[in-house]
DNA sequence: CGTCCACGTCTAC
DNA sequence: TAGACCTGGACGG
């Protein structure tokens, strides 16, 4: 689950399991990984982790007592991005997870192994690297500079985009991902496809309330404006929620992260909009699913994109193909034929879509987080809809 | 069996 | 602004 909070929880996880552990030898990379080797070998070193937005940095520090020919090796930083499926695990040597791509071995017996696990391999790492320079300040732990970086750059074309798309721009919102943008906009009742700039204009550079923020405060605005409609002068602050909402997830603790149990019940219960039954969803201009309720906003894509073309017959010689995939590849080997068929399919799909409403109500699109057992009228929508549960968060930075 | 979908970048027309 | 990059789970036929 890698957005900002998960990356941070991953760094906490690493620090917890590596506390007092002595690592030794070489850093080992899986055969299949295309990321670079980590040329680091040391008899005895420790591992610490830190996070910033959607990156985690591991620092490998040789112990002073272990000196290589009179010279102490300097620490090495490795910066990780998690892609769609990255995580860290700590296991015994013979329980190495299936998709472990970079592993650090302890000197214990039995040997403990910290590994970077990444099923889809969209993740990456950079040894001797530092935070990616074109990513902005961390939404969670560099709140002040994050806020300034947005408000001082509102003239940038990034803010011409709809707000939901701007929120995924890591140059300004380092740590926000697809579930966070949905949750954040939902809580403020901001239509996802209004121009980003208009949402931020008028916000104060300094957030005076920072450091003493509760979610209740955020929502109180909007409740009173319901009543009087006079509250326009003090709009709920989207930038602050970009900070506090991710911290709510962090404060749920490693339960939300724990790769061992993969028990997401806490997290699922926390979600109010993303993948929640009864919410609407549509594709944004980049083909990402935007979850929301109410108005889509004026910049909503008019016609949904035709679903991505099949990429079947592309990679014949790929050694990495499973037997199944090979069959599929061979079957559609005749590219001419495949293309024609594809055209026909796309055409008929477009035709269908024309007749559909632009934005679909997705009452049963709840798949990724497996179906909840429905318990009568106790629907999630009902529970969460503008729920005024108070949660205190501890903003840092 | 096949199709669609997923918590994210990247680079190449 | 498409695709490419991947694996695997849910679901439909």
From TrEMBL:
<dbReference type="InterPro" id="IPR015886">
    <property type="entry name" value="H2TH_FPG"/>
</dbReference>
<keyword id="KW-0511">Multifunctional enzyme</keyword>
<keyword id="KW-0963">Cytoplasm</keyword>
<feature type="domain" description="Formamidopyrimidine-DNA glycosylase catalytic">
    <location>
        <begin position="2"/>
        <end position="123"/>
    </location>
</feature>
<dbReference type="GO" id="GO:0005634">
    <property type="term" value="C:nucleus"/>
</dbReference>
<dbReference type="InterPro" id="IPR012319">
    <property type="entry name" value="FPG_cat"/>
</dbReference>
<dbReference type="Pfam" id="PF01149">
    <property type="entry name" value="Fapy_DNA_glyco"/>
</dbReference>
<dbReference type="Pfam" id="PF09292">
    <property type="entry name" value="Neil1-DNA_bind"/>
</dbReference>
<dbReference type="GO" id="GO:0140078">
    <property type="term" value="F:class I DNA-(apurinic or apyrimidinic site) endonuclease activity"/>
</dbReference>
<dbReference type="InterPro" id="IPR010979">
    <property type="entry name" value="Ribosomal_uS13-like_H2TH"/>
</dbReference>
<keyword id="KW-0326">Glycosidase</keyword>
<protein>
    <recommendedName>
        <fullName>Endonuclease 8-like 1</fullName>
        <ecNumber>4.2.99.18</ecNumber>
    </recommendedName>
</protein>
<feature type="region of interest" description="Disordered">
    <location>
        <begin position="292"/>
        <end position="397"/>
    </location>
</feature>
<comment type="function">
    <text>Involved in base excision repair of DNA damaged by oxidation or by mutagenic agents. Acts as a DNA glycosylase that recognizes and removes damaged bases. Has a preference for oxidized pyrimidines, such as thymine glycol, formamidopyrimidine (Fapy) and 5-hydroxyuracil. Has marginal activity towards 8-oxoguanine. Has AP (apurinic/apyrimidinic) lyase activity and introduces nicks in the DNA strand. Cleaves the DNA backbone by beta-delta elimination to generate a single-strand break at the site of the removed base with both 3'- and 5'-phosphates.</text>
</comment>
<dbReference type="GO" id="GO:0006284">
    <property type="term" value="P:base-excision repair"/>
</dbReference>
<keyword id="KW-0158">Chromosome</keyword>
<comment type="similarity">
    <text>Belongs to the FPG family.</text>
</comment>
<dbReference type="GO" id="GO:0008270">
    <property type="term" value="F:zinc ion binding"/>
</dbReference>
<feature type="compositionally biased region" description="Basic and acidic residues">
    <location>
        <begin position="314"/>
        <end position="323"/>
    </location>
</feature>
<dbReference type="GO" id="GO:0005694">
    <property type="term" value="C:chromosome"/>
</dbReference>
<keyword id="KW-0539">Nucleus</keyword>
<dbReference type="InterPro" id="IPR035937">
    <property type="entry name" value="FPG_N"/>
</dbReference>
<keyword id="KW-0378">Hydrolase</keyword>
<dbReference type="GO" id="GO:0003684">
    <property type="term" value="F:damaged DNA binding"/>
</dbReference>
<keyword id="KW-0206">Cytoskeleton</keyword>
<feature type="compositionally biased region" description="Basic residues">
    <location>
        <begin position="365"/>
        <end position="374"/>
    </location>
</feature>
<keyword id="KW-0227">DNA damage</keyword>
<feature type="compositionally biased region" description="Basic and acidic residues">
    <location>
        <begin position="333"/>
        <end position="364"/>
    </location>
</feature>
<dbReference type="GO" id="GO:0005813">
    <property type="term" value="C:centrosome"/>
</dbReference>
<keyword id="KW-0238">DNA-binding</keyword>
<keyword id="KW-0456">Lyase</keyword>
<dbReference type="InterPro" id="IPR015371">
    <property type="entry name" value="Endonuclease-VIII_DNA-bd"/>
</dbReference>
<dbReference type="GO" id="GO:0019104">
    <property type="term" value="F:DNA N-glycosylase activity"/>
</dbReference>
<keyword id="KW-0234">DNA repair</keyword>
């Amino acid at each position: 689950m890698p957005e900002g909070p998960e990356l941070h929880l991953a760094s906490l996880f690493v620090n917890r399991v590596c506390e007092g552990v002595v690592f030794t030898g070489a850093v080992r990379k899986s055969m299949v990984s295309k990321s670079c080797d980590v040329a680091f070998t040391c008899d005895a070193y420790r591992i610490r982790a830190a996070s910033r937005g959607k990156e985690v940095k591991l620092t490998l520090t040789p112990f002073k007592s272990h000196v290589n020919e009179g010279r102490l090796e300097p620490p090495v930083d490795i910066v990780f991005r998690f892609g769609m499926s990255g995580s860290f695990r700590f296991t015994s040597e013979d329980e190495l997870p299936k998709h472990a791509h970079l592993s650090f071995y302890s000197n214990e017996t039995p040997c403990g192994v910290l590994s970077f696990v990444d099923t889809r391999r969209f993740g990456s790492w950079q040894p001797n690297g530092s935070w990616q320079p074109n990513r902005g300040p961390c939404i969670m732990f560099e709140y002040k500079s994050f806020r300034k970086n947005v408000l001082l750059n509102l003239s940038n074309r990034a803010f011409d985009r709809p707000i939901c798309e701007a929120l995924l721009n890591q140059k300004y919102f380092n740590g926000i991902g697809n579930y966070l943008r949905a949750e954040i906009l939902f809580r403020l009742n901001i239509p996802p496809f209004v121009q980003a700039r208009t949402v931020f204009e008028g916000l104060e550079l300094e957030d005076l309330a920072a450091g003493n923020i509760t979610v209740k405060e955020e929502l109180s605005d909007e409740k009173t404006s319901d009543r009087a409609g006079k509250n326009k002068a003090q709009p709920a602050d989207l930038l602050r929620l970009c900070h506090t909402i991710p911290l709510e997830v962090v404060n749920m603790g490693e339960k939300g992260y724990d790769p061992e149990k993969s028990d997401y019940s806490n997290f699922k219960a926390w979600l109010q909009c993303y993948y929640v039954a009864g919410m609407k969803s549509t594709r944004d201009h980049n083909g990402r699913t935007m979850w929301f309720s109410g108005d889509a906003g004026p910049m909503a894509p008019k016609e949904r994109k035709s679903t991505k073309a099949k990429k079947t017959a592309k990679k014949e010689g790929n050694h990495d193909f499973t037997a199944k995939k090979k069959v599929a590849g061979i079957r559609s080997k005749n590219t001419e034929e495949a293309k024609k068929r594809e055209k026909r399919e796309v055409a008929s799909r477009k035709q269908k879509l024309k007749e559909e409403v632009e934005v679909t109500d997705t009452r049963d699109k709840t798949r990724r987080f497996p179906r909840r057992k429905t318990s009568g009228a106790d629907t999630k929508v009902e529970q969460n809809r503008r729920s005024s549960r108070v949660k205190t968060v501890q903003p840092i930075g």
